[in-house]
Amino acid sequence: MNEEMRRSQQTPGRRTIFVWRHSVVTRLTHWLNVLCLGFLLLSGLQIFNAHPELYWGQFGADADPPFIKIGASEINGEQHGLLTIGSVSVRTTGVLGLSKMEGEWTPRAFPAWLTLPSDQDLAAGRRWHFFFAWIFVVNGLVYLWYGLLSSHFYRDLAPGRHELALRYLWREMMDHARLRFPSGELARHYNPLQKLTYVLVIMVLLPLMVLTGLTMSPSVDAGFPVLLDIFGGRQSARTLHFITASLLVGFVVVHVAMVILSGPWNNMRSMVTGRYAIRQDGPDA
Amino acid sequence: MTGLTRRRFLMGSTCAASALALSSCDVPGQNAELGAVLRSAEKLTMKAQRLLVSRGALAREFAEADISPSFRVNGTNKPDGDEYAQLVEGKFASWRLKIDGLVERPQEISLADIKKLPARTQITRHDCVEGWSAIGKWTGVPLGILLKSVGLKPSARFAVFYCADELERTLDGSGRYYESIDLIDAFHPQTILAYAMNDRGLSVGHGAPLRLRVERQLGYKQAKYIMRIEIVANFAGLWGGNGGYWEDRGYEWYAGI
To which H or E segment does residue B180 belong? Predict the structure, then answer.
């Protein structure tokens, strides 16, 4: 970032310069991550469908009270899909609990178009999931290693002290809400909301996915029983795995929306080629 | 054993042919080679776990208060057939556990004699491949004690467990439940052949007269209704050649994750 490459579109008083926004490691690991998270999500929903109930604690099966449940029930003689969280149920017919598969209403937690493979096939879902989990972990380690060595984390992601002031953050939030994005010199760096979000995703949510996933492994639990204490049991870890995945889906939705709203072409170019255009005001230097 | 019930399995198998045809639509170019690539992760997982988790590392053992109020019966509820029904009627007095294959002294042991051997009791968590868990208390003889008493030949690599339950009716017997573990797990201190659960004799639902507990792996490895243990060098002669009923149907042989 910040290295001026070349100037173009020289117009009096206004010019566009290109800066290196993303290093090649950041770009490669970013897109590999997109691929992995896509496969992990779809195969994860396939695995979830095998037992669409989540519990809190060390154990949990059909006879135990679920924390979150996606199922189908008969209400007034009609089948409905239901999402139940605690004691609250929401009808989700068509998407969750009950959806059409090849034209037939089928009771299944997540619909066929959201699972990999689309048929109910736990064994295949697990193979996809663990294959991409390995790539995801190796990719993540490469990125973390690079981020520390290249001072990418320190330089680009760590928010400055003044950026963490509540007043500053509030103004940033208001600007984002009005879809006013930083321009000129300010666009050279991530803004504080971006920094905080990326740090949360990179340092908290993604590692949490790996750790809660590993806590579901009986063998890993034998080797590292502390995981069971951290997450409060295998079933709690499974629930947290699902909740964290939902938060990541939420992040991706907002992230993609921001990419589109703040200049899709420029953003995409910078994540593919590394070059990011910045408009500068003022006389030519 | 998983919570895949017989009815669901039969429903599944009738759809199997169409599923095979459809699976090619799911991912472009899905084929045997892709399957082999995806399966490579299983070997990596096993190697990594064997490297990072020591051979003797114990699965967590819980307190009495942690036991699940209701332990879901999974897989078969009760094996079909007169043979098993007669065993139940006779309270398994005529049942014998056969241990053969690559052993020095093949044996047939009665349930009463198994109960005379040193026992181990453990309160552990059972994790189904589908995602649910239940905690139960198991009492049985460590498999290692039995294997030492029969003496393993140098070529021995795996213990195969043949069960009384048949999940799928076939002419070649490939629908009969079977499982296998390697010697690292066979000699693990928590690997026991359980004849009691929650301080009572093992019920038919949970695998009477004898079931395997191999605590660092998933539920489908915990073979119920064990009739025979064969020590083998490889799985070549065993039905699908993958070392287990569910393994022959696409599930991983190493079920540590």
Answer: strand B176-182
**Are A61 and B68 an interchain contact pair (Cβ–Cβ within 8 Å)?**
yes
In sequence order, the 6+-apart residues with CB closer than 8 A to the CB of B60 are A221, A222, A225, A228, B124, B125
Q: How far apart, in whole angstroms, are the C-alpha atoms of residue A182 and residue A108?
A: 45
pLDDT, one tens digit per residue, over A247-257 is 999 999 999 99
β-strands A14-20, A53-54 pairing: unpaired
B22 closest CB neighbour out of A119, A130, A216 = A119
CA–CA gap between residue A183 and residue A172 (Å, rounded): 13
Q: What are the phi and psi torsion angles at B223 (to 5°)?
A: -55, 135
Q: Which residue of B has its CA nearest to A114?
A: B26
- Asked whether the predicted pLDDT for residue B197 surpasses 60, the reply is yes
Helix (H, G, I), strand (E, B) or coil at B131: coil
Q: What would the two tokens of residue A267 be?
A: 């953003």
What is the model's pLDDT at position B4? Answer: 46
Query: Chain A contacts of B249, Cβ < 8 Å?
Result: 123
- In residues, how long is chain A? 285
ipTM, two decimals, is 0.89
What average pLDDT score do residues A176-182 get? 88
A143: number of Cβ within 10 Å:
21
Give the long-range contacts of residues B55-58, CB within 8 A, separation 24 or more.
B55/B184, B55/B188, B56/B188, B56/B189, B57/A222, B57/A223, B57/B216, B58/A222, B58/B189, B58/B190, B58/B215
- Say how many Å lie between the first and final Cα of chain A, rounded: 20
